[in-house]
Amino acid sequence: MSKPLILALNRNQRNNDILIKILKKEGYDAYGFQDPAELDKEVQRREKINLVLMDISGFNRSVWESCERLRTLEIPFLVLSPQQHQAVEKQSMMHGAHGVLVKPLVVKELLILIKNLIGE
């Protein structure tokens, strides 16, 4: 049986590397991207993606287009936001997010949420 696949978008390479390392340690197949266009290419290339973690920090509004594509393809995703803001939560849900997490992330809570979302 193959490992669940999680993709992550984050402009900060160091943060992306840390997140991917944590996910792999937990037994997930995980890959990080710094550019929404690269993430979109990977989404088109893969047959089965269990979850995408979308850190919206530092991206322009085009990041919501990537969210829309995920929703259209019925790929679950979580939005990671630098602050709790009602407008971000509303925008995230309008574009199909399964939830919004405020940074800094609590790893234990993130992993529980991931397991609940992908049925582990």
Overview of the molecule:
With 120 residues, this protein is an alpha/beta fold. Strand 3 (51-55), helix 3 (63-72) and strand 4 form a beta-alpha-beta unit. The two termini are 13 Å apart. The longest helix has 13 residues, at 13-25. The chain has a 5-stranded parallel sheet with strand order 2-1-3-4-5, with helices on both faces. 45% of the residues lie in helices and 19% in strands. It contains 5 helices and 5 strands, in the order βαβαβαβαβα. The chain has one domain (5-118): 3-Layer(aba) Sandwich (Rossmann fold), CATH 3.40.50.2300.
Strand order of the largest sheet: 2-1-3-4-5
Mean pLDDT comes to 92
Low-pLDDT windows of residues: none
What name does the CATH topology carry? Answer: Rossmann fold
Class from secondary-structure proportions: alpha/beta
Largest sheet: 5 strands, parallel
Q: H/E element string?
A: EHEHEHEHEH
Assigned CATH architecture: 3-Layer(aba) Sandwich
Computed Rg: 13 Å
- The termini sit apart by 13 Å
Give the % helix. 40-55%
CATH class, anyone? Answer: Alpha Beta
Which shape, going by the Cα principal axes?
globular
Q: How many beta strands in the DSSP annotation?
A: 5
Strand content: 15-25%
